[in-house]
Amino acid sequence: MAGIAQKTSKFLSNVVRELKRVSWPKRKELTRYTITVVSTVVFVTLFFALVDQGLSWIIATVFE
Hints:
Layout: H1 2-21, H2 27-62
């Protein structure tokens, strides 16, 4: 058991050390990235909704 606790402690200390090296984005960058992601998700959602509606209409028209 002592080996597991020691390995876990070493792993967590390595995680903390690596997190201190991370280059975190500034507030302005984070806002820009968030807007980009949200707008991309909205665009893709609308695109696929329109494609789905179009295909549904085509299939309904052909099989009537």
